[in-house]
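Problem statement: downstream parser choked on a complex file, so we are re-checking the raw output for the FE2/S2 (inorganic) cluster run. The parser issue turned out to be on our end (a line-ending mismatch), but while we're here, posting the original submission so the record is complete.
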Amino acid sequence: MSNHEQHETSHRPVQRKEMSRRQFLSYTLGGTTAFMMGGAVLPMVRFAADPLLKKKGESAYVKVVEESKITNEPQEFKFKIHQVDGWYESEPELVAWISKNQQGEVFALSPVCKHLGCTIAWNTKGKNEYDCPCHDARYSKDGKNITVANTPLDEYDVMIDQGFIYLGAIKPNTRV
Ligand code: FES
């Protein structure tokens, strides 16, 4: 390129692309609409997804009874847990049959019969067993299934702290 051509190029006026009025209106209205839609829709999305985003807490233990009240004879205790199921919170009442084994260790059994889910009770027929009123299933003190049901009673996680018994999640029987 000659010096003359260079000089011409450097003095050529810069051409700006002008935005048309139509483009300006499209951008402005489009941006405003997107902003307003975002403001309306985002809270709804957050509300819908909120329970799914929350971490599930570790299974909480619930204080049920003083350890000193527990004997070798199973006793029925009722307690409430705080339950969150999606958007629905409730405080259902649970039941546990709590007793000590030969070594003095505390354990707690679920009252739900493993046959069809009726509620069992201790020693209703004088045989020192758990009995189910629905179809006569029987279980030993450890929850072992004797008749009708195919599996032993479930048990609760047990924690003892400062003289109190706390119950946690229900799990398959570990005793039989
Ligand atoms: S539900 Fe308990 S024996 Fe059938």
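For whoever reads this later: Residues 113, 115-118, 132, 134-135, 137, 148 surround FE2/S2 (inorganic) cluster (CB under 6 Å).
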